[in-house]
Amino acid sequence: MKAPRIDSLQYANFSEEIFRQMRAGGVDAVHVTIAYHENFREMVLNLEQWNRWFEAHPDLIFKGTSAADVRRAQDTNRTAIFFGFQNPSPIEDDIGLVEICHQLGIRFMQLTYNNQSLLATGCYEAEDTGLTRMGRQVVREMNRVGLVVDMSHSGERSTLEAIDQSSRPIAITHANPHWWHAALRNKSDTVFRALTGSGGMLGFSVYPHHLQDGSACTLESFCSMIEEAAGRYGAAHLGIGTDLCQDQPDSVVEWMRVGRWSKVIDYGEGSASNAGFPPMPDWFKDNRDFGRIRNGLLQTSLTQAEVEGIMGGNWLRFFEEGFEPL
Amino acid sequence: MKAPRIDSLQYANFSEEIFRQMRAGGVDAVHVTIAYHENFREMVLNLEQWNRWFEAHPDLIFKGTSAADVRRAQDTNRTAIFFGFQNPSPIEDDIGLVEICHQLGIRFMQLTYNNQSLLATGCYEAEDTGLTRMGRQVVREMNRVGLVVDMSHSGERSTLEAIDQSSRPIAITHANPHWWHAALRNKSDTVFRALTGSGGMLGFSVYPHHLQDGSACTLESFCSMIEEAAGRYGAAHLGIGTDLCQDQPDSVVEWMRVGRWSKVIDYGEGSASNAGFPPMPDWFKDNRDFGRIRNGLLQTSLTQAEVEGIMGGNWLRFFEEGFEPL
C-alpha cells in the first residue's frame, strides 16, 4: 500500500476549495481543530458544521475516527478528517465528557492552550506547576478511551509530566525544536527526547512564528532541521503538523489568543506591529504544497522510507496505536 | 441462531440488580429511555451515567448501536442497551442535533411526549395539527441518519402523518390497541393498520394504565389481545415494549408528566387518587418475567415461530433495517 500523506494540524477557514486542494495535494488525512475556547455545547455546534460539510462533499472528505479510515481515504481518493481540541475547554469540569467527546469522534485533545487550564499549565504562564489533580485523572481517562494527549501549547514541566503520567504515547502535533528557533511555543530537546523515547510523535509546524526567520524561512532550512531532528530522536517519531490557518480573517487569530479570558488583547506569538496572521512561507501556501516538503526532505540524507514515514506513515502507525479504547 | 429476546421500552431506576435480572430473564437487548424533558446538554449527562454503568458492569451490559450488537449480546451472554428519547427536547430547535444524537448512539426518538412539541402533536392535546414545518424536516433527517421515529405518545393525526412522511418504517415502541383498552395513550386500529402496512413495528406495553383492567389485567387477556392483533396486523410487525419503570420513586412519574412545562401537577394517565406509579400486574414485575409472556403466547393459536418473532426476532429485523444511515 502506498504511504499515506497526513497533516496532524490544520485550522483553515475550510471550504470546498480547500477540500479540493487537499485532494490535489494527495493529503489522505488531516487532523483539524474544532475547538479553541468553546465549551461543550459550543463545540457541538462546530461538529454540526463539519457534518454539513461531510454531507455536502462526500466525494472529497469524510469523518475519520480510526487508522483504517486513512486506508479507506486512500482507497476512495478522499481525505479523512480527524477532530481535535486545542484546549480542554469542551470537557469543562466534567471527566465524563472525555468519553462523550471520544464517542463524538474527537481523537486529540490538548491539555492546555497557552494559559493555565483545569488540567495543566500552558507555555505562556510564568510558572508551570505541572499536571493538576484533575489533569492526572483526565490523562488516565483519555488513555482508557483512546483520546490522544496533545501538548503542543503546554509548558515544559506539564509536558514532561504528561509524557510520564500517560500510559500511552502522546503527541505534540504542531511545534518545532527550540534549538532551531527559540520561540516560547517551540519545545526543548529534553521534551522531544522524552516524547519520542516513550513512543510519542512530533509534528513539525510551518506556522511562521515557529520557523527560523519566520515567513522568510527557506524550505532547505526547514528540511535540514527535520534531518537533524531525525538524528536526535529517530525519524520514525516525526511527522508534519502544518498549523495551516489558510483563509482565516485576523479576527480568528484574536479569538485563538484571547477567547473570552481577557478584555484586552494579547498578541501571543505576534506583536502590536505584527498582530494578524503572518504570511506563510512561499513554499507552503496550502495543501497542494505537501509534495514540496516531500521533495525537500528527499534532498537531505534521509532515506526515502524515512521521508515517507515523516510524510504520513508514522502518523498512521500512531493512529493505529492511539485511537482505540484500551 | 437462537431467537433474541428484546424489550423495546424500559425506564427503570437502573442498577446492577436490574442488569442481573435482564440476564436472568434472558433479555438480549433493551431500548432504554435516556430523556423525557432534558435539553441536549442535560441529556449528555444521562449518557455519562450510562457510560459509568457500562464501565462498571462490562460482564452484564454494553451499549448497542446496531442490529449486530443484539447478536453480540447473545454470543457473549450480555444485554445490549439501546438509547432513545421519549421527547424531541434534546434536539432543541436545531436539526443538526439529529445527526449528533445518532452519532452519540441514540436510535429512537419520539416526536412528541403527550404535549405539542416543535415537531408534532401529543396525544393529550385537544387538537392535533399533524407534523409541523420543522417536524417534516426532522423526519427526513431522522430517515437519513438512521434515527427511528417513535410515535408512542403522539396524537392520531400526527402519527398517521409521520407514517406517511417517513421514507423508512417507524415504530410505536410501547402502546396497546384502543379496541382492547380505550386509553388516550393506546392507538386506534387505523393507526396500527397504517403503521404495520408500511413495515412499522408495534411494541405491546404492560404499563398498567395501558392494560385492560389495569394492574388486575391477566396474562391470558394480554396474550389473547396480541393474538387478535396478529390476526389484524400480521405477527411479524409485533413485539414487546414493556414500559417497565421498575424501582422508580413517584417523583419520577411526576417528572415524566410535568417536566418543567407546568407549575401545577398533571396526572396524565393517572388521577389525584392514583397519582403514583401503578402496581405492575403480578405476571410481570421485572425482566425475569419475559418467559411468562412467551409461555402465555404459546398457549394461543400463534405458532412458535410467530411467538419467537414477537419476543424479539421482529425487533431485530427492524433494527437491521432502521439504524444505519441511508
Describe the structure.
The structure is a homodimer of 326-residue chains. Chain A has one domain (6-322): Metal-dependent hydrolases (TIM Barrel). In chain A, 39% of the residues lie in helices and 12% in strands. In chain A, strands 1, 2, 3, 4, 5 and 6 form a 6-stranded parallel beta sheet that branches. A 3-stranded parallel beta sheet of chain A has the order 7-8-9. The two termini of chain A are 27 Å apart. With 326 residues, the first copy, chain A, is an alpha/beta fold. Chain A has 11 helices and 9 strands. Chain A has helices at residues 16-24, 40-56, 67-76, 96-103, 133-145, 156-165, 189-197, 219-233, 250-258, 290-298, 304-322; strands spanning 6-10, 29-35, 61-63, 79-85, 106-110, 148-150, 171-172, 201-204, 238-240. In chain A, strand 3, helix 3 and strand 4 (79-85) form a beta-alpha-beta unit. The relative contact order of chain A is 0.15. Chains A and B meet through helix 2 and helix 4 of A and helix 2 and helix 4 of B.
